């Protein structure tokens, strides 16, 4: 494939994302999961020179998913879009998050807690991210995130769109002391997006990194559509008192909110100007 044609394919994909109405998607993409790994690389190589924090500890962003064992979700596709720089960065695939070796109660208990019952959303990088994921984000942050997924219990497909606000970007570029003794004296950043997928189509979102989870908020689906296999849906009753909860290692990890970070950053700026 000639380089020019290669870049045109990348720009066409970015154009598709750009022309979707924000917060409202007309239909699910038929091309989900069909693009080649070369196109993933092209999303970066054909864009303009990236602008990011020049710190080797500032890692490329990525997208992960936290799912319940008893009410799992299958992610078809996830990607970030930067409209001002005209690029789209794809991340595939998340289906192996629900493979037999990973969607396994014993496996999840190994990284969560021995008493984990399989209902809450477990937050742990070895559960929420896959080492075999195709495609990585860039150090330049996206302006919007798109994630397409299906709930096993209802067989309903959902699309979630998140605007990466200036407050979110500020939280991602905020430097923390690195928690690892191997990188003592170096900075650490929260460059991981983590979606918590609930069986009614809602999606929670955190930033992860530095042994800290920053809760952004809960998003309603931008679009929902029944699956052709809806008649196979189990539609089991959902015990929300157990499902609408999260598990994380309270001894190691800290939980905070975006509002907390925004307030602290404002105070830091005020202190510097005094």
From TrEMBL:
Which InterPro entries does the entry mention? DUF2931
Tell me, what's a Pfam family for it?
DUF2931
What protein is this chain from?
DUF2931 family protein
């Amino acid at each position: 494939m000639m380089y020019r044609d290669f870049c045109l394919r990348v720009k066409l994909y970015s154009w598709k994302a750009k022309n979707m109405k924000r917060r409202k998607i007309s239909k699910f993409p038929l091309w989900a999961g069909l693009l080649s790994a070369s196109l993933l690389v092209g999303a970066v190589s054909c864009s303009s020179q990236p602008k990011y924090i020049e710190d080797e500890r500032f890692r490329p962003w990525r997208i992960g998913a936290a799912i319940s064992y008893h009410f799992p979700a299958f992610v078809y596709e996830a990607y970030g879009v930067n409209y001002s720089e005209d690029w789209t960065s794809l991340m595939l695939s998340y289906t192996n998050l629900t493979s037999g070796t990973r969607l396994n109660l014993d496996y999840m208990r190994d990284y969560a807690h021995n008493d984990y019952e399989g209902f809450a959303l477990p937050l742990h990088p070895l559960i929420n991210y896959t080492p075999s994921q195709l495609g990585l984000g860039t150090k330049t942050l996206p302006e919007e995130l798109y994630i397409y997924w299906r709930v096993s219990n209802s067989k309903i497909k959902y699309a979630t769109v998140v605007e990466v606000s200036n407050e979110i970007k500020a939280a991602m570029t905020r430097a923390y002391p690195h928690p690892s003794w191997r990188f003592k004296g170096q900075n650490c950043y929260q460059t991981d997006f983590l979606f918590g997928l609930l069986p009614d189509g809602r999606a929670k979102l955190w930033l992860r990194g530095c042994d800290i989870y920053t809760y952004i908020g809960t998003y309603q689906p931008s679009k929902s559509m029944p699956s052709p296999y809806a008649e196979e849906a189990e539609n089991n009753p959902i015990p929300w008192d157990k499902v609408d909860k999260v598990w994380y290692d309270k001894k190691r990890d800290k939980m905070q909110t975006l509002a907390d970070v925004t307030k602290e950053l404002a105070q830091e700026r005020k202190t510097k100007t005094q």
